[in-house]
Amino acid sequence: MVDTLIIGGGSAGSVLAARLSEDPGRTVRLVEAGSPRRSAAEFPPELADSAALPVGGEAPWLWRYPVALTPELPGQIVRGRGIGGSGAVNGCYFIRAAARDFAAWSREAGTRAWDFEEVLPFFRSLENDEDYGDYPGHSRTGPVPVRRIARPSRLAQEFATTCLDLGFGEVPDWNSMPGGPDTGVGPVPCTIGAADSSGRHRRLGPAHSYLLPALSRPNLIVQGDTLATRLRFAGDRVVGADCLIEGKPETIHADRVVLCAGAIESAALLLRSGIGPADQLAELGIPVIVAAPVGRWTVDHPEIGIEYRHPAPAVGAVPLEYVLGFDDIEIRPYTVAFAPGVHRMGVTLMRPTSSGRLRLTGSDPFTPPLIEQNYLATAADRSRLRAAVGLAGKILDVMSADWSGGTDEGAISDHWLYERLGSSQHLAGTCRMGRSDDPRAVVDERCRVHGVDGLSVVDLSVVPVPLSRGPHATVLLLAERATADLR
Question: Which residue of the set 208, 426, 450, 472 is catalytic?
Fold first, then answer.
C-alpha cells in the first residue's frame, strides 16, 4: 500500500514522482511499462546524443501505434518506452505554449487557474535558462536546463537569414514575456547540456532533470517492466491497479492513482477499466463504472514534409535549431537527415479546426486502440496549409534549394498535401479537461477524473485546446501545476 501510485514514467510521471516524494512522509510508487533505467549510464547512447532523432526502426525504447491520418491514409504514432518516455526521444524542443493558448485553456476549464499569469510561476520553478535566466519571466534555479545553440548549422543560418529578408522579425527568445511572441524566426530553446569539446550536446530529458536525482529517497519506488492493465475500485473510489510485472499479475494498492501514461495509454487504461463512452464499453463487454467521453476528442499537429536538396550538410546540434512561427503555422527546417542527401522542411498547422478520436478495439491491453486523426477534414485547415506551403516554397527558392513544388498557392492541390502529410507526434485531448457539466470533459480543472474519487490524469491527454507550440514544455508545466494540487 502506498500513498500515491503513478502509472507512467515519462515526462509528467518523472516530474510528479520527484516532486511528490520531496515530502518524506508520503510514499510514492511509479510504475513504467518499459525499461527502468536507474542511472544516466543506462540510457542508450542514441538517446544521449541531442543531434539524433532516435525514432526510426524497431528500437526497444519505442512504442509504435498504427493510426489513420485520414480515412484513406494510414500513419504511425511513435512514443518513448522506458523511464523518460517521449521526453527521452524527442527533439529537445522547449517552447512554452502561447499566452493565448492558456487563455483558451482557462475558458474550457471554467477557471482562471490556467491563465498564463497563473501558470508562469510554475514555468519559472522548473526552468534553468542558461541564456535568459535573468530576464523577466525566466529563472536559473529550476531543474530543467534550457539553452539555444550558440553556433547553429549552415542550414539553420541560411533559413533564418532568408526569413528575415522576407520581412519576418527576429525572435531571440521564444519564451519571452508576455507569453511568447506570435510571429518571427528564432532559435529553438532546447533541453540539452553544455557543448563538449567537439561541440556535441547531451539530451537531458525530465528523467535526468527530475527523477534520477530523486531515486535515493527511501519513500520513492520506481519499477520498470510493469504494465498497468486495469484500475481497481472500491465503490466509486479507485484504490489501485492490476499490473503485469515482468509478465506476472499483481495488484498494487494506493490511496490515490495518477495516470501519466500519455494521451494513448492513459485513455486506453481508463476505457479498459470501465470509464468511457457507455456504448463502446458495452460493445466490448466492459462493465461501465463511469460513462465519460474518453477518446471522443483528440487533436494533433498535422505536418507537411517537404523534401529538398541543398549543399549544406545535414548536421546540427539538435534536430531543429530554428523555427519560423506566424499565425497558426510553424515552419521547421530540420537539420537531421531523413534520407541520405535529402533535407526536410516541416510545415505544421498548430491550431487545426479538425479533430479526431480514439477508441478500443478490444479489452486486451496488448491490442492497440484505433486512433483516427481526421487530419485536414475542414476546408480551413487545407487552405491554411496551402498558403503556408507556398511561403515555405519561397523560402526554399531563396535558399536555392532543389525541391518539387511551386510557390503558387492555387497550384498546391489537396492531393499534393495528402502525399506529404504526416504527424508531429503531439496527440492530445483524449481525457479532456473541463467543467462537470461539459459533455466533452473527462477531468476537472485540477486533473481529477469526473465521477470517481482517488484518480487523476496528468499528461497531454487532459489539454483541452490545440497548442500553438510543441507540447513538451507545457507537459512539464502541467505536472508542476498538478503537483501543487496533489500535495
Answer: 426
List per-residue pLDDT tens for the chain, 487 residues long.
999 999 999 999 999 999 999 999 999 999 999 999 999 999 999 999 999 889 988 899 999 999 999 999 999 999 999 999 999 999 999 999 999 999 999 999 999 999 999 999 999 999 999 999 999 999 999 999 999 999 999 999 999 999 999 999 999 999 999 999 999 999 999 999 999 988 889 999 999 999 999 999 999 999 999 999 999 999 999 999 999 999 999 999 999 999 999 999 999 999 999 999 999 999 999 999 999 999 999 999 999 999 999 998 888 899 999 999 999 999 999 998 878 889 999 999 999 999 999 999 999 999 999 999 999 999 999 999 999 999 999 999 999 999 987 666 667 899 999 999 999 999 999 999 999 999 999 999 999 999 999 999 999 999 999 999 999 999 999 999 999 999 8
* Amino acid type, 249: P
Cell of 254: 494506493
Residue 24: CATH number of its domain: 3.50.50.60
472 noted as active-site residue: no
Query: What are the φ/ψ torsions at residue 227 (nearest 5 degrees)?
Result: -100, 120
Domain range enclosing 200: 2-486
Residue pair 345/181 in contact (Cβ under 8 Å)? The answer is no
Amino acid in position 398: V
For the chain, report the end-to-end CA distance as a whole number of angstroms: 18
Q: How many domains does the chain have?
A: 1
In contact, 130 and 143? CB cutoff 8 Å: no
For residues 376-401, one letter each, b for 16 or more C-beta atoms within 10 angstroms of the residue's C-beta and e for the rest, the string is bbeeebbebbbebbbbbbebbeebeb
